[in-house]
Amino acid sequence: MRKQARLQAPADRIKNFFEVALGYSKEEAEKEAKRCLLCKDPLCVKGCPVRIDIPSFIRLLRENKPQEALAKIKERNNLPAVCGRVCPQEDQCEAMCILNKKKIPINIGALERYAADYGKAAGKQLTSEPQASEPANPRTRELKIAVVGSGPAGLTAAADLAKMGYSVTLFESLHKPGGVLTYGIPEFRLPKKIVMDEVEYIKGLGVEVKTDYLVGRTLGLAELFEKGYKAIFLAIGAGLPQFMGIPGENLSRVYSANEFLTRVNLMRAYAFPESKTPLNIGTRAAVIGGGNVAFDSARCALRLGAKVSIVYRRAEAEMPARVEEIQNAKEEGVEFQLLTQPVKILGDEQGFVKGLECVRMALGEPDASGRKRPVPVKNSNFILEADTVIVAIGQTPNPLLSRAAPELKTNPNGTIAVNEDYMTSLPGVFAGGDIITGADTVIAAMGAGKKAALAIDRYIKTNG
Ligand code: FAD
Ligand code: SF4
Known about the structure:
The structure is a single chain. The chain is α/β, with parallel strands linked by helices. The chain has 3 domains: about 5-120, Alpha-helical ferredoxin (Fumarate Reductase Iron-sulfur Protein, Chain B, domain 2, Orthogonal Bundle), CATH 1.10.1060.10; about 140-240 and about 395-464, FAD/NAD(P)-binding domain; about 240-395, FAD/NAD(P)-binding domain. It has 18 helices and 16 strands. Strands 3-2-1-4-16 form a 5-stranded parallel β-sheet. The chain has a 5-stranded parallel β-sheet with strand order 6-14-7-8-9.
């Protein structure tokens, strides 16, 4: 069982949007680093999708060299302050740590975060890469590449291509870059200053960022080629919310988690009145779903002043959310309605939500996913009091771009089809991240961005 680093006390943190996990102090980081066995054939590295040299950066932390530790991490990972905070380490690097067998695995995520935060704070990063304040990378190749979408996949590919000397433009439809890191994951898990610092670092590599630019509308793929871009990388994520298809979903104060979180994070409803964009949440919110997105929504609603219930049709053990997020939500007072399926959202005369009709479920035979299939219990209907309903049951790729470019082949689930080199059915157009996998993780999207950047480089060398 992994041990979380220090947290804000639940009674305090439910009243603010400041970061919940406080991270290690210098002494705590040194102590944790000293527990590491510095394995010669480290399994943890195999568990990291971008293969950070984990023992080497931990050794540098042991020697009290956070700047050098950060430089070591940045050899493989352009967004360490983000990954140290939001990677599901318990399923990745830490799951492979040899210390799992005996004691508690090394808290690699917290050490990565420490190196990122303190390495930066300690001054100029000791790295061969240019910094935001320095001149951009030399353009050894004047060839232009367009990256569409500025989430972790787009940011990573853009950074790697700029480091290779290409002239990279990053197009983003929203008014701020960062993708889910900016509009989805709440401030209390990932402060936006951290994301913007990482974006600044990438701009410092010479990447031009164009926001409010919806590729497929503002400009099409063919027009990008006409403008001289030699290759295009599509990293447009999977941001189209799914609904349940039950009566009442068109009532006022029914939100998709995507809209709700965008209004809280990107539109800064959490900072009202300073932000001038309030969000009326009422007094009781029901959040439907059991993944990270549901828990982020629930914990935001709680901080905006509502009593919150998570409504999930399976049991807690089957929730896809990170265990520590479930634990944190429980400590904060989020209530759980498990084995519960909503069947109807009830409205008042003005068209506002006034409750959620639910049915209790029992677990039956395993379904195709191997998990026990929830089946409704007869005559178990009940009304859950709610004046806001947030639907967090999953997201799919937005079809806007593939509709605008019908030659772009898609899979039956709406993801863009690519070959082993991340190339789509259109020559010179590559894709990676959630848009090819469906909703996944930050580090998986970054891994795709890295591999796609290499594939684009090979393509240009052959065809450019
Ligand atoms: P995204 O981050 O979705 O970025 C895509 C970008 O493309 C967006 O900015 C979008 O505006 C832009 N775009 C879309 N279409 C166009 C267009 N036509 N033109 C221009 N721009 C366009 N993963 C974790 O590892 N840990 C977590 O704790 C975690 N928590 C999450 C919480 C929430 C609320 C959500 C929604 C997801 C979470 N995830 C988490 C998943 C993770 O954030 C995603 O897997 C990851 O962000 C995918 O990266 P991406 O670059 O493929 O796409
Ligand atoms: Fe672990 Fe993620 Fe860091 Fe890799 S990037 S070492 S998986 S926390």
